[in-house]
Specification:
alpha+beta, 27% strand, 13 helices, 18 strands, Dna Ligase, domain 1
Amino acid sequence: MTDFYQSQRAMRAMRQAAMQRGVVAILDVGTSKIGCLVLRFDGPERLCEADGVGPMAGQSAFRVIGAATTRARGVRFGEVDAMAETERAIRTAVQAAQKMANVRVDHVIACFAGAGPRSYGLAGEIELAGGQVSEQDVARVLAACDLPDFGPGREVLHAQPVNFALDHRTGLGDPRGHVGNRLAVDMHLLTVDAAAVQNLIYCINRCDLELAGIASSAYVAGIASLVEDEQELGAACIDMGGGATGVSIFIKKHMIFADAVRMGGDHVSADISKGLQVPMAVAERIKTIHGGVHATGMDDREMIEIGGDSGDWEKDRRRISRTELIGIMRPRVEEILEDVRALLDAAGFDHLPSQQIVLTGGASQIPGLDMLAARILGQNVRLGRPLRVQGLPQAATGPAFASAVGLALFAAHPQDEWWDFEVPAERYPARSLKRAMRWFKDNW
């Protein structure tokens, strides 16, 4: 744990150095595509750091000067599966983005979707020596949180203070400078499988790149797709990727829960491939052009040319009705949404004041998915596109790029995390879990 705390601090320092140099790359390692954006930080703002615990701490102006995507190889369920193939795909995407930007990039900030994320809610409390709350007091109260026993083989990916309370006042975003006697904090901790993180770090290092930060796709997709009111009042972001579907819940502009379902759009394509006995590439094309989840009377009459190049004239000229295609796709989409529903129920999503659900990610573009999701999840559902970012090519503004755009915003406006504070060495949390997720239901 101490080692990881130090390595995260080193990554933050590297990110600062990269931003002062003015250029950093964003790498979205997905199951179906690997996307790379090159960001340039403009003007004197990049050197000034605004104080503040929150999503806009350290404002920086940036623009996208290079963008590229390539088909992901060697990635399954959002995790690196074949090291050499993933390395080649990352190199291809980064080199294409560098060529477009006409600049060399040494530092990347990466995000990934899998690795079995698990959320914990922690609470800590300390007595203040007197007077104003200082930076050291914030570090002490974060260190006073009881760390859960999340077992061997797992790493902490995010550890964010989401709420501070000073004496009887709660809901403080940043307590520094306030006067009081007793400081308490609620912290959200996200752990992931250590092996998956190490594989990704090793793969990026093999590409001669320095890792200046790492984030969960579910978290950054939420940053990009949820509007300010949704982040404030409470909303869930469902990021439907190729091999995994990430779920994140936000309230008061902080993420308070994240998890993932190990299924995504590629599983729908695989069902079409097996059901129609066609190659995966053909199944993907049919899904993209003709797919859907709601059959109408007209769909019986709408015939789809399957096409193919197997050499068998009869087999290559088969036709099926759109109703048959929907019959293959719908059960798998329903299964993914049922699993998402189970995660939201386990997280206590019903307790939030607002229960907006936003669908994003490449697989969210299946026609009729929002209506089906509203029926299964039983909430207000809308399709989310990422925020517009200066310099972003038109081709990269769709839901499939929510994670990449969110990661760019995360790089420019990092939220304060546990390792941003100088925690005393003897105070590293190492105790058992006493209270987890309790504040999530009670404190809001």
